[in-house]
Specification:
Layout: E1 2-12, H1 14-20, H2 28-43, E2 54-65, E3 68-73, H3 81-95, E4 98-101, H4 104-119, H5 124-127, H6 135-138, E5 149-151, H7 152-156, H8 167-173, H9 187-192, H10 196-220, H11 226-242, H12 246-255
Helix pairs in contact: 1-2, 3-4, 8-10, 10-11
Length: 256
């Protein structure tokens, strides 16, 4: 098994907002307020920014490789966005893993595309659709219907947007912890308060939920036997028990 489950957390790209709307004299907080207001004017109610207006502040992952399992956030709390994005695509280049996400096709990956474009980051393995590796012609990261990237939300909804469900509710339905102490809507406030580590911790619990849903899906579609699935669950338990990180131990306590 070579699986890379990922999730990103974002904030408004206030540098872009400042340039787009000629807001040179305003603070980051005020620029973001203008960006949100303009978005509400466009949509009528939602202030969720268009994807190219997001900046990445955390990328977290569960990596299942050979006999090991790792849960972590890429880079350090003070790493630049460019470093985080570069590390993400470097991992794909090195391991060519199966990517797993929840709404990754609709949010996380397009945002990563735009940020890689902004920073001039090489992501050639990710973008390969058979030009360099013929195997990628029939199974690549870009196609919606290939499993080199599995967007669980999209797949489980049968590719019908009206059937989409929130990760939190599906995780709880399956007996997993779901959201713990934060949501994506709170990330900007937490970032302004300097709580980047809390954001990274929250993101890590989200990828754990996603990985657990993925394992259940692998069981239901016959890629894991019941015994193999139980072994994977036991590995997660063992990994979390051995950590000294309070948010991962809290996740385990909420699960058990």
């Amino acid at each position: 098994m070579n699986v890379f489950v990922f999730d990103i957390e974002t904030i408004p790209d206030v540098d872009l907002g400042r340039r787009l709307y000629n807001l040179g004299g305003l603070s980051d907080k005020d620029v973001a307020r203008v960006m949100f207001q303009k978005r509400r004017e466009q949509t009528g109610d939602s202030d969720f920014l268009r994807l190219h207006m997001h900046a990445i502040v955390a990328i977290s992952a569960v990596f299942r490789n050979n006999d090991s399992l790792k849960v972590w956030s890429l880079g350090e709390p003070d790493s630049s966005e460019a470093e985080l994005v570069q590390r993400f695509f470097d991992g794909i280049d090195k391991f060519t893993p199966t990517l797993v996400s929840w709404n990754g096709g609709g949010f996380d990956l397009p945002v990563l595309h735009y940020r890689a474009l902004k920073h001039g980051i090489n992501a050639s393995r990710y973008w390969d659709t058979g030009e360099d590796d013929r195997e990628f012609k029939w199974n690549n990261y870009i196609s919606r219907y290939h499993h080199r990237h599995t967007d669980l939300m999209d797949v489980l909804a049968g590719y019908q947007p009206r059937a989409n469900a929130p990760l939190d509710e599906i995780a709880v339905m399956l007996g997993y912890p779901g959201k713990m102490g934060m949501s994506g809507a709170k990330v900007w406030d937490q970032y302004q308060a300097g709580n980047i580590q809390d954001i990274r911790n929250y993101c890590e619990t989200d990828v754990l939920n996603t990985y657990l849903v993925y394992l259940r899906w692998e069981l239901t579609r016959g890629n894991l036997t019941k015994t193999a699935w139980e072994k994977e669950i036991a590995l997660i338990h063992t990994t979390l028990k051995q950590t000294n990180q309070s948010h991962l131990l809290a996740f385990l306590d909420a699960w058990i």
